[in-house]
Design goal:
The protein is of the alpha+beta class. The chain is built from 3 helices and 9 strands; from the N terminus they run E-E-H-E-H-E-E-E-E-H-E-E.
Length: 153
Amino acid sequence: VEFRHRGRPLFVFLNHFNSKRGDEPLFGRRQPPYRDSEARRAEQASVLAEFVQALFAVDPGARIVALGDFNDFEFAQSLRSLNEAGLRNLTESLPLMERYTYIHEGNAQALDHIYVSDALRAHSEYDIVHVNAEFPAEMRASDHDPVLLRLKP
């Protein structure tokens, strides 16, 4: 979606990348675990990265936000093309102990992220609101915690 924010274009991409369903468990019998879903997420990230690069080709100072359930960790190889395209994952701006949006088999992990272009990074306030992942299913609205971005002037 293209918005106008303070008189300039702001491009926002809402994402829901391929699930990890079907992957072998992190601490399962086979190590390293087979994770077939990573290739599909890498393809999805590559398509998004190509679009972002096309925007930067037209405007090197483009203001871009890519957010959503990327279904992978901030350091995952499958998401590397987003960094290479010029986006920065704001999850990395938080202390290590706060970098989670989902808990699976007792492992707290960040699967939901907000990436921004360099033009927005200095104007971004980011946080993960821990209102779901830590609680029993009957007490939460979702199995993921929401991520929050505030763009300062």
